[in-house]
Amino acid sequence: EVTEKLEEVVMIWTKQIRQVLVESKQIRREVDDVGPSAELEHWKSRMSSFNSLLDEIKSSRVKKILSILQAARSKTLKQWKELDRSITIAANEAKDNVRYLYTLDKLFGPLAYASPVMMEHIPRLMNTVCMIYCTSPYYNTSEHMTSLFLKITNQMINTCKTYLCEG
User: Fold this and answer.
1) Residues contacting residue 35 through CB under 8 Å, at least 6 positions apart
2) Which GO terms describe its molecular function (predicted)?
3) Is it the case that residue 115 has pLDDT exceeding 80?
4) Least crowded by CB within 10 Å, which of 3, 20, 58, 167?
5) What distance in Å separates the CA atoms of residue 78 and residue 95, rounded to the nearest whole number?
6) Angle of CA points 134, 140, 101, to nearest 5°
7) Nearest to 143 by CA among 106, 109, 89, 97
């Protein structure tokens, strides 16, 4: 009876964690002219969420429940281990992406405040994006690069608009 109750608890956790994972994979809705700093903020938020989830999963309360279920040879543990692995991968992806995007962050400021003749900033920015694409195990997808380039382009357009309105 205790095992059944604990299995019910783990199944509720499993459902909640699956929901978090599904939501994290959904397409983001962003305003049309959002700049590249939003990309870093997104991944920082995601890293924080997944790290909190990992901390909770590693808590002594959860470990005790899992060890009781392991002793009882519960079948719910197989699903739990798969979810634990998925969360760990998602947390590692977010952490890695934050680390790489921080290398770009210092280049976003000059891009935002430059005159429309921002050519001196572009080569360094593109070299850094290229480095991220070539070395990041997670961020080097077409989806992530497209999102980043779109935001960089938005920032360049916003800078030009600001220049024109102030000039």
Assistant:
1) 108, 112, 151, 152, 154, 155, 158
2) dynein intermediate chain binding; dynein light intermediate chain binding
3) no
4) 167
5) 26
6) 90
7) 97
pLDDT in tens, 15-43: 999 998 888 887 777 777 788 888 999 99
Reading the block at residue 108, the tokens are: 């976003």
CA dihedral 135, 89, 45, 141 (to 10 degrees): 40
CA dist list (Å): 133 to 52, 109, 144: 28, 21, 9
Inter-residue contact 44 to 98 (CB < 8 Å): yes
Show me where the domains of the chain are located.
1-25+33-166
Structure tokens at 67: 């060890």
Contact 87, 23 (CB under 8 A): no
pTM of the model: 0.80
